[in-house]
């Protein structure tokens, strides 16, 4: 039975709209109902914790201290004056740039290779994705063995071409590139998967037209594939920066943050303050600062890349 | 062209991946080896009074502890002990959060260096009444002075813990390498000066051509056998050397960090010189000391009492324990103490009775604990050790009682040791000179110490 509003040919608004929803409203309500389990847990375990962390960052809270005093912005002031923090941030940037670029390039190359209609392409997709499913612990153990200066496989292989053992994890100039290499191997599967989806979305007639016009493979890639993959590249880079800026497992498990503090990252710094020194208030200030840095970087990426995206 | 390069890249990725996956499978195979891991939590006994016990004894010492608790459960069938073994780092974290949440265990074991922190926050039960001085069962005079000092904190007479053992720094030497170099393996023949130790390490360090580090033809870029290694727990090595030179970690009032004293700089410089001047030790980073000793590429391994069982497993390496190196005029070596602690909030008399019966039983049977490699804390148990089976426990135990040095007694010990360790690593890897490294460490440590006083 039609409602009065429908009879009059006008759309109900506000509360009435909820009582007699049209198709679009019903879809929105259904979407929120399906999303609600996630939203409830997200609110309880993430939003609430994040807001609480903002409050904690103004306290001098050692974990077992019963009533931590309010100290205003002192934690932030100490953080900005700590050169170890800034060194850690620099290491993190260095690592994130190398790994985001590395996983994007390797992921794209792998995606291009496995989207070709050749035998075994499906198997190769699965095979290349396998490292992504390894736990950080397994990955750390594997790369510890590979990069070991004494007994490492990489040094063993290099010895056949006359290269003396390289102290990958003991040289401050090599440790971040070594960790980046391990991370690229470990995580390029996800970008590969997204790139495969992106490549499959590019209409085939564009390549046919380019071929008729005499374009070679590189030109087709340069002028068709790459421009049409820009939304995908933006997604990969934004999620990559967010993920790799929070790097913890690789330096913690493979290099122990060393030599010295040469591979301390922002989250290793946070971990040491919050979970070794048990300075929870200071740790919360570090966490807030990391979140702000990541938000700024993400906004910057959107600004630079999304302007030129061709949808 | 692009097609070819992408296919080539994929081929390289596939090869690399296959190599990696074979490693992953090897790791898995090793994890599932012949020796099943100690079940955690382990349930010991079937009695009606249940107590939970957390500790960080995840190595072979944990196996010994479970064996001892099985013995306790046989004698005390009314008690069940649920033992949760967690690596020390996560245990510290779990304990602190458990105290905040009110879900702490009935009894736990930490290192004595943690007594000040936990006692200062009021979460520890005063255990003075367990000692004979407080009317209890544990004779005070059966505990060495150095061990007893680790159980105490603050101005009062309270005793916050009951010691299980002394574990600390000693050396394990490769006897075959010593004999090949013409050096006696008798611990009593060990040098007592820095110069003497350097000469010993030089004799034991060999290049690929078989020249030792004393030879003019020695090639320091191509060493195949190291005399020594500075990499395992640099701060433990440093504390021993610091005190050997008459230095100290803190001033007498405990308020000022003094690691960057003349004694400290000398101690660290001597260690750094072993790497960069004498070429008898590799830099610390990226060098696995236990693997190297097990592979027969290190002659003298500075490690601890806990290495005993590993050395027994390595039947192809003939090794024995020596006392810690002595580089300064005074002998000194680092020790730690595994310590029973009971939460202040636990008031259930039945559980408290079960806990103290368990601690007393283990304490009275501490001779069994020597099988873990550690040195029993009670002097009577040390005296009862069989020299045939426990030579390392006896030798190192004596050195701990005579000149052992503990971590500094502060409420922020883990934090300041973290700062020291990073700066020692900087020096040992040639990133900073010893004086700068120690000054930088002292500055950070002092800030942490000052914060703890507020």
Number of domains of chain A: 2
Low-confidence stretches of chain A: 1-5
Looking at the structure, the CATH topology of the largest domain in chain A is MetI-like fold
Shape of chain B: globular
At the fourth CATH level, what is the homologous superfamily of the largest domain in chain A? MetI-like
Low-confidence stretches of chain B: 24-35
Strand content of chain A: under 5%
Largest inter-chain interface? Answer: A-B, 55 and 54 residues
* CATH superfamily label of the largest domain in chain B: Periplasmic binding protein-like II
- Strand order in the largest sheet of chain B: 1-3-2-4-12-5
Please give the CATH class of the largest domain in chain B. Alpha Beta
Helix content of chain B: 40-55%
Class of the largest domain in chain A in CATH? Answer: Mainly Alpha
Task: Supply the number of helical segments of chain B.
Answer: 16
> How would a textbook summarize the main sheet of chain B?
6 strands, mixed
Q: Name the helicity range of chain A.
A: over 70%
Q: Between the first and last Cα atoms of chain A, what is the distance in angstroms?
A: 42 Å
| Secondary structure tally: strands of chain A | 0
Strand content of chain B: 5-15%
- Calculate Rg of chain A over CA atoms: 25 Å
State mean pLDDT of chain B (0 to 100 scale): 90
What is the fold's blueprint, element by element?
The complex is a heterodimer of chains A (311) and B (454).
Chain A: H1 4-8, H2 14-19, H3 23-56, H4 74-80, H5 83-114, H6 121-129, H7 136-147, H8 153-159, H9 175-187, H10 189-200, H11 204-212, H12 217-228, H13 230-245, H14 249-255, H15 266-276, H16 280-306
Helix pairs in contact in A: 3-16, 5-6, 5-9, 5-10, 5-13, 5-15, 7-14, 9-14, 13-16, 15-16
Chain B: H1 2-31, E1 42-44, E2 49-55, H2 60-75, E3 79-85, H3 88-101, E4 107-111, H4 115-120, H5 145-150, E5 162-163, E6 165-174, H6 175-180, H7 194-204, E7 206-207, E8 223-225, H8 234-244, H9 262-276, H10 289-294, E9 300-304, H11 308-313, E10 319-322, E11 333-336, E12 338-341, H12 349-364, E13 375-376, H13 379-383, H14 391-403, E14 404-405, H15 413-428, H16 434-453
């Amino acid at each position: 039975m039609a409602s009065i509003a429908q009879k009059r040919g006008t759309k109900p608004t506000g509360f009435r709209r909820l009582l007699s929803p049209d198709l679009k409203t019903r879809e929105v309500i259904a979407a929120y109902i399906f999303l609600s389990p996630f939203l409830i847990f997200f609110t309880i375990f993430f939003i609430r914790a994040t807001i609480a962390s903002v409050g904690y960052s103004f306290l001098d809270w050692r974990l077992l201290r019963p009533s931590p005093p309010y100290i205003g912005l002192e934690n932030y002031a100490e953080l900005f004056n700590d050169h170890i923090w800034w060194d850690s941030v620099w290491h993190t940037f260095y690592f994130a740039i190398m790994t985001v670029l590395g996983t994007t390039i390797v992921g794209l190359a792998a995606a291009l290779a496995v989207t070709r209609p050749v035998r075994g392409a499906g198997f190769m997709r699965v095979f290349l994705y396998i490292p992504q499913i390894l736990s950080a612990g397994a990955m750390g153990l594997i790369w510890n063995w590979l990069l070991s200066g004494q007994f490492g496989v990489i040094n063993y292989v290099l010895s056949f071409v006359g290269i003396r053992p390289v102290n990958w994890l003991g040289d401050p100039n090599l440790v971040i590139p070594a960790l980046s290499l391990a991370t690229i191997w470990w995580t390029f599967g996800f970008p590969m998967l997204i790139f495969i989806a992106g490549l499959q979305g590019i209409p085939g007639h564009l390549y046919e037209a380019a071929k008729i016009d005499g374009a070679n493979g590189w030109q087709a890639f340069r002028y068709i594939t790459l421009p049409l993959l820009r939304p995908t590249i933006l997604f990969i880079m934004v999620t990559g920066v967010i993920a790799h800026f929070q790097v913890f497992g690789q330096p913690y498990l493979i290099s122990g943050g060393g030599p010295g503090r040469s591979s301390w990252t922002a989250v290793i710094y946070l971990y040491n303050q919050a979970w070794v020194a048990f300075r929870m208030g200071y740790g919360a200030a570090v966490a807030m600062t990391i979140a702000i840095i990541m938000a700024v970087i993400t906004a910057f990426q959107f600004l630079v890349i999304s302007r030129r995206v061709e949808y | 062209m692009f097609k070819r390069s992408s296919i080539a890249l994929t081929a390289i990725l596939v090869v690399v991946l296959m190599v990696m996956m074979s490693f992953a499978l090897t790791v898995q195979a090793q994890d599932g080896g012949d020796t099943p891991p100690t079940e955690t939590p382990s349930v010991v006994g079937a009695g009606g009074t249940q107590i939970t016990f957390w500790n960080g004894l995840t190595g072979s010492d944990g196996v010994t502890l479970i064996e001892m608790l099985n013995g306790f459960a046989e004698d005390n069938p009314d008690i069940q002990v649920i033992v949760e073994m967690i690596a020390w780092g996560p245990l510290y974290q779990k304990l602190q959060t458990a105290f905040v949440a009110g879900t702490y265990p009935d009894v736990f074991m930490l290192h004595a260096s943690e007594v000040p922190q936990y006692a200062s926050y009021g979460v520890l039960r005063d255990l003075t009444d367990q000692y004979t001085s407080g009317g209890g069962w544990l004779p005070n005079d059966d505990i060495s002075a150095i061990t007893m000092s680790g159980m105490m904190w603050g101005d009062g007479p309270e005793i916050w813990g009951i010691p299980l053992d002394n574990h600390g720094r000693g050396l394990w030497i490769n006897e075959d390498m010593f004999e090949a170099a013409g050096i006696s393996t008798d611990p009593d023949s060990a040098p007592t000066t820095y110069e003497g130790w350097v000469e010993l390490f030089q004799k034991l360090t060999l290049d690929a051509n078989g020249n030792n580090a004393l030879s003019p033809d020695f090639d320091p870029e191509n060493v195949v056998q190291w005399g020594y290694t500075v990499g395992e727990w640099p701060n433990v090595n440093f504390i021993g050397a610091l005190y050997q030179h008459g230095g100290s970690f803190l001033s007498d009032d405990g308020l000022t960090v003094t690691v960057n004293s003349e004694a400290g700089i000398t101690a660290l410089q001597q260690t750094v010189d072993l790497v960069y001047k004498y070429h008898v030790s590799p830099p610390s980073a990226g060098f696995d000391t236990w693997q190297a000793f097990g592979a027969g590429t290190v002659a003298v391994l500075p490690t601890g009492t806990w290495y005993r069982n590993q050395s027994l497993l390595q039947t192809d390496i003939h090794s024995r324990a020596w006392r810690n190196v002595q580089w300064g005029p005074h002998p000194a070596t680092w020790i730690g103490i595994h310590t029973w602690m009971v939460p202040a909030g636990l008031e259930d008399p039945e559980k408290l009775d079960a806990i103290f019966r368990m601690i007393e039983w283990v304490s009275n049977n501490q001779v069994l604990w020597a099988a873990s490699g550690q040195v029993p804390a009670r002097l009577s148990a040390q005296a009862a050790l069989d020299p045939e089976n426990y030579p390392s426990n006896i030798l190192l135990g004596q050195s701990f009682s005579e000149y052992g040095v503990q971590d500094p007694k502060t409420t922020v010990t883990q934090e300041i040791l973290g700062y020291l360790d990073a700066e020692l690593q900087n020096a040992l890897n040639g990133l900073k000179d010893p004086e700068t490294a120690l000054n930088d460490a002292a500055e950070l440590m002092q800030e942490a110490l000052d914060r703890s006083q507020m």
